[in-house]
Amino acid sequence: REAFDKLKYKAITGGLTFNPNITKPVIAAVNGFAFGGGFELALGADLIIAAEHAVFSLPEPLVGRVPTEGGVHRLVRQIPYRIAMEILFTYKRMSAQEGLELGFVNKVVPLDQLMIEAEKMANTIMGGSPLAIRAIKQMANDGLEMTLRKAFATTFPLYGKFSQSQDFIEGPKAFSEKRKPVWKGV
Question: Is 60 considered catalytic here?
Answer without folding.
Answer: yes
